[in-house]
Amino acid sequence: MIVPFRVDNCSIERTLDVVGEKWTFLVLREAFSGVRRFADMQAHTGAPRQVLSARLTRLVEEGLLRKVPYREPGQRQRDEYRLTDKGRDLYPLLVALMHWGDKYLSDDEGPPTLLTHRDCGAPVEQYLRCAEGHEVGGPRDVTPLPGAARKTA
């Protein structure tokens, strides 16, 4: 039996409230690639200046990025944006989105970027596993149960 729950207590909705916007994902993509400075992020994402500024501010407020001051010789102080642990924890989500896009939206030539393990060079893959180590193939292999904070309708 499916137990209805209130939408205002949904972890997916809460997460999307923080990251569920195109420019946010593109900023995170760049941060995971090592891009830290505003001008570089703007050049790599193509985001309008005001939009990028708003996204970076929100990601800092949410604790996904932190600002670190830097100064080029002869220039004013500026900030770099670095991922926090909370931000780095989103990496599997971006990899999952990328793999989905590679599978269903790539050009005939294949995906534009391949992720490989730095130590051995093997392609990076993602799997769902239960706490006992069994591979979970998809939603038919999962049973949703009410959590402690679930509010019924």
Structure notes:
It is a single chain. The strands form two sheets. Strands 1-2 form a two-stranded antiparallel ribbon. The protein has a two-stranded antiparallel ribbon with strand order 3-4. 39% of the residues lie in helices and 10% in strands. The protein is built from six helices and four strands; from the N terminus they run ααααββααββ. It starts with 10 loop residues before the first helix and ends in a 17-residue tail after the last strand. The model has no long low-confidence stretch (mean pLDDT 91). The longest helix is centred in the middle third of the chain and has 15 residues, at 91-105. By secondary structure, the protein is an alpha+beta fold. The protein has helices at residues 11-19, 22-32, 38-45, 49-61, 85-88, 91-105, and strands at 65-70, 78-83, 128-129, 135-136. β1 and β2 (78-83) form a beta hairpin.
Biggest sheet strand line-up: 1-2
- Average pLDDT over all residues: 91
User: What is the string of SSEs from the N terminus onward?
Assistant: HHHHEEHHEE
Strand coverage percent: 5-15%
Q: What Rg is obtained from the alpha carbons, in whole angstroms?
A: 19 Å
Q: How many strands appear in the DSSP assignment?
A: 4
- Coarse structural class: alpha+beta
Query: Main sheet, how many strands, which sense, barrel?
Result: 2 strands, antiparallel
Broad shape: globular
DSSP helix count?
6
The percent of residues in helical segments reads 25-40%
Q: Which regions are unreliable across 5 or more consecutive residues at pLDDT < 50?
A: none
